[in-house]
Specification:
It is a single chain. The protein is of the alpha/beta class and 341 residues long. 25% of the residues lie in helices and 26% in strands. It has 9 helices and 16 strands. GO terms for molecular function: oxidoreductase activity. InterPro entries: ADH-like_N, ER, GroES-like_sf, Lipid_raft_assoc_Zn_ADH, NAD(P)-bd_dom_sf. This is Zinc-containing alcohol dehydrogenase.
């Protein structure tokens, strides 16, 4: 099969690692790579139709677990083989999902996943659109419902909640980085949950209309947050840095502060050293786990029109270096960059 692999550094060079990440030129489309085979209960072989390119993938530790690694987590495609006849899926099923971070291998013609990492693809979406969902939408799902404590509505309740006026809503939720790859799903799922959504962004001129279209009750710039001291029941941060540090001022004394910014993994300890935390606030960082339950729920909301998927641009596998450089630069589109094969 064809697969995009991270080739090692030249012999006389320092080996690639998270502290010395490989350049995009180390990404090569290789041919005649062995096709993985289902070998235990739950294994599913998927013919990959689309996957995603995420910023900074070449800085992730799992990229360097072994040489010639195939990376990539998001996936949409068609089931071609299963290990067990009683599997949840059968050959021919159109699926989408996310490979676990410690064994990512979606940048290939075929990928091996566990049945609990997949769900049937939303009927309303193309393969490209479906591939844009799993990592970002499941991160939003877990941030809000698993860690933020927001009650998860049924799909039918979600539709009703999105039609509510702001005055009918109870809990107040702040989402930073609201127009980003994870933020756009946080806004949509929070709106579906019937909470009052305040979407924070660097530019209202660029993003306010878009964010309100996703269900935000208010769209504000970060400099406008000073008037919101102590008013939020839940804050989900996607930005980190000083934006996250200031969030302690805006969360209630008994509220929840969650960060999904990868550079903020130890923010609670760091902020405690700086004397800027509140004792009553439940604060945490997490890395998305993913589940078939979350995928099924997201697919259901998509098919009912409560959640949209966003794709910026699609690249062929042969253009992976260009796609990775695009993902790591500043681009004006909203959503994910896609690789197709």
């Amino acid at each position: 099969m064809q697969a995009i692999r991270v080739h090692p550094a030249p012999p006389s060079s320092i080996p690639y690692s998270p502290s010395n990440p490989a350049p995009s030129s180390a990404l090569h489309l290789d041919h005649n790579v062995p096709i993985p085979k289902p070998s235990k209960p739950g294994d599913i072989l998927v013919r990959v139709k689309a996957t995603t390119v995420i910023r900074d993938m070449l800085t992730w530790p799992e990229t360097y677990y072994h040489e010639y690694a195939i990376i990539g987590n998001d996936i949409s495609g068609i089931v071609t083989e299963v290990f067990s006849p009683d599997c949840k899926f059968q050959p021919g099923d159109e699926v989408f999902g996310m490979a676990a971070t410690d064994r990512a291998a979606a940048w290939a013609e075929y990928a091996l996943l566990n049945e609990d990492e997949l769900a049937l693809k939303p009927k309303a979406l193309t393969f490209d659109q479906a591939a844009a969902l799993p990592l970002s939408a499941q991160t939003a799902y877990e941030a809000l419902f698993d860690h933020g404590g927001i009650p998860m509505p049924s799909a039918e309740e979600a539709i009703k909640n999105q039609a509510q006026s702001s005055g009918q809503k109870g809990q107040r939720v702040l989402i930073t980085g609201a127009a980003g790859a994870v933020g756009i799903y946080l806004v949509q799922l929070a709106s579906a949950a019937g909470v009052h959504v305040v979407a924070a962004t660097s530019s209202n001129a660029r993003n306010e209309e878009f964010l309100r279209g996703l269900g935000a009750d208010e769209a504000i710039e970060y400099g406008m947050l000073e008037s919101y001291r102590g008013v939020f029941d839940v804050i989900i941060d996607v930005v980190g840095g000083e934006v996250l540090a200031k969030c302690w001022d805006y969360v209630k004394e008994t509220g929840v502060l969650v960060s999904v910014d990868s550079a903020s993994f130890n923010f609670v300890e760091e902020h405690e050293k700086r004397g800027i935390r509140k004792d009553g606030v439940r604060a945490l960082f997490f890395i998305v786990k993913g589940s078939s339950k979350a995928l099924h729920y997201i697919a259901e909301l998509v098919d009912l029109g409560a959640v949209q998927s966003f794709v910026v641009e699609a690249y062929s596998f042969s253009k992976v270096q260009e796609a990775y450089d695009h993902a790591n630069g500043r681009y004006s589109g909203r959503g994910k960059l896609i690789l197709t094969i």
